Amino acid sequence: MSDGPRLRVGAYAVIVRDSSVLLSRLSEASPVFDPGAWHLPGGGLDPGEQPGDALVRELREEAGLEVTTSRLLDARSYSARRNGTDWHVVGLLHSAQVGDGEPVVTEVDGSADAVRWVPVDQLDELPLSPPTADGLRLVDLLR
Q1: In this predicted model, which residue has the larger pLDDT, 110 or 56?
Q2: What angle do CA 60, 61, 62 make, to 5 degrees?
Q3: CA 67 to chain centroid
Q4: How far is CA 104 from CA 13, 22, 65, 96, 140, in A?
């Protein structure tokens, strides 16, 4: 009997500033979604970690930015397969604001290899992870 898919719970943020959205590009170290896809900053919760705390930690690691406010938009469920592992992902999608500063990936060998502000009018040109597409739809930035 199979153990079934591995469960992963992640907290992700839609962050909009000056008609741009903060996105990170997934690296080869991404455990669930395909490398090269653009993803909402955020990531998996550590055991016992609160979603808001995970969001703050992940934004610091993936973008070097501090979360100033956040609110939960929705929770979504995804199935994925990567490197021979089946995943069941629960994404806690937030709207957030961050403090001043330019985004920079601070985590070495993490799941993100780039982070940048992407103009809203260029979103259709990028490969987006499923949680990213859903998050952008929730705030009416993507059809």
Answers
A1: 56
A2: 100
A3: 14
A4: 16, 11, 8, 17, 26
